[in-house]
Structures are given as C-alpha cells and as structure tokens.
Amino acid sequence: MQGIALAGVLTVVLGHAAFAGPQPEAAATVHSCAQSVLDVDGNQIWVNKEGSGVLTVVFESGFGNDSGVWSQIAPRIRAAGAQTLVYDRAGMGKSTINTATPYSIDNDVHILRTVLTSCGVIGPIVMVGHSYGGALALVAASGDQRIQGLVLIEAVVPQAWPRSEVDNNLRLMRAQYDEVRAQAPALAKVAIPWAEAMPATAARIDGVHIAESLPIIDIVAEKGQNSEASATIWRDAHAAFTANHPHREHVLAVGSSHKVMADQP
Fold first, then answer.
1. Are 237 and 200 in contact (CB under 8 A)?
2. What sign for the dihedral angle of Cα 175, 181, 182, 184?
C-alpha cells in the first residue's frame, strides 16, 4: 500500500521537477553523508545518504523513533532509482541534542534544512514523515522549495491536536517525567522539552501554509489511535486536510496500527 502511494507522488514530482523555484545556496562544505555525524549548532546529527538519482526521498521519523524504522522501506526506494536520506533527530538514536537551545518544531526544521544543505541535497525532494515527523515535514515544506512532494503517514496535521488532546497528552506525560529522568536520562533531555512544547507545536501546525499545488499522499491508519474520542478527532482532521484539495489524496491503511511502516512496509 505505502509503496503504491509513494510511487504515485514520485511520478508527479518528477513530472514537475523542471519547474522548481529557487534553491537554497549550497553549503560551503558538502559532506558525503554516508553514515556521517554532522555538527549543527552543537547538535551531533547522525545521517546516512545512499543511492543516486534525480530525486531524493527524505525520511522523517515519529517522536521517540530513530531512522531504523525505515530499514524495510528505504532500500526499496533506492532500488526504484531514487536517492534516500535518513537521519536521527537531535536526541534520538545516534544523535545528541544541544539542550542550550529551547526545544521547538522550527528548530527541528532548521536542523533538517541544514543537514540537507550540508549533504548537497538540492532537490527535488519527497519527504516521507510519520506522526510528529509528518508535522515537521509540513512545516519544512511550507518554506523550502526543494520539497516537491509529501507522503504523510499517520501525521499530525492541522487540527489533529486540539487543546483537549494536548492537555490530555501533557497530563499523561507529566506523570512519567520522574521515571523517564531516572531510567532514560538521555531521552529525558529531549522528551520532556518536546512534551512541554506541545501547545506551541500544535499552534504552529494549525497555522502552517502549504501550497495547494504540492502533491501530498496522506496515509491514515484504521487503528491508529488509542481511544474512540481521539480517533474521531484524528479522522476528522485528516478528512478536512485532504477534502477539496485536488493535489492531496487520502489513503486508508486498513487494519494497521499507528506504525504503518512496521505493519504494512
């Protein structure tokens, strides 16, 4: 299912690649980025760029996951003729976080854009984003013309995190802060600031502007949410996100949990 969706958006993007707008300037030093660690504002970011081709598919993991979640998918994309880039966000996997910078989704996007430029990725790019990674992909696409297509997988889209959901999530997560600090201090450095930033993150996503011409495949899992109330909010948000938008397509991952890329790779 996911392969079909991605193939469709790749075709659209390649068809429009010649019409890309101006690209960001190349970094002074371009790295190969084959299993490399880049210093981005004091964050040590692990990145792996593989393959070749006109198109680069960039994978953005959900919160709490590292780039390993794409291990079944990225090789298939390279085999189809595209370059792939996976990386661990600051504080996840093999990457470390500079806690001197306050946590924000915009800083995550800044790190991503710096990685892309440092790795010589000039576009066109299709971003594949899961959960919070999908929200990050939306914010990135709103201001980077290298990104010419999105595949969203159970993504946080506008209105998916209304205040009621944010407050409920914060209540549940705050009850676990002490345990996380004690048992996973490295994770606590990013997880707690990430949680506390949720109200600002939700507001940022709700206000994001995405070009109507940008092709988007929006994959929603049939069994992605933990409660019926949350599932209703989630489904309604995704329905509104794709309805009456000719370049956005809704795809239902039948029988899948929130981690579609694991259930239906």
1. no
2. positive
Q: Read off the pLDDT of residues 244-265 as tens digits, 9 standing for 90 and up.
A: 999 999 999 999 999 999 998 8
Calculate mean pLDDT across residues 188-213.
97
Q: What is the mean pLDDT of the chain?
A: 91
CATH fold of 2-17+27-263, please?
Rossmann fold (3.40.50)
pTM summary value: 0.90
- CB proximity list for 26: less than 8 A, separation 6 or greater: 117, 120, 122
Taking each helix axis as running N to C, give the angle between helix 198-206 and helix 132-141, from 0 to 180 degrees, rounded to the nearest 10.
Answer: 50
- Which stretches within 17-126 are classed as H helix? 74-79, 105-118
The whole-angstrom separation of Cα 114 and Cα 128 is 18
Task: Give yes or no for a cis peptide into 124 (omega within 30° of 0).
Answer: yes
pLDDT tens, 163-196?
Answer: 999 999 999 999 999 999 999 999 999 999 999 9
159 vs 176, 197, 210, 259, CA distance in Å? 26, 16, 14, 20
Section 214-225 average pLDDT: 96
- Rounded CA gap, 126 and 249, in Å? 15
Give strand pairing partners of 149: 126
Q: Who's near 197: CB < 8 A, 6+ residues apart? A: 103, 104, 105
Residue 126: closest CA among 154, 153, 149: 149
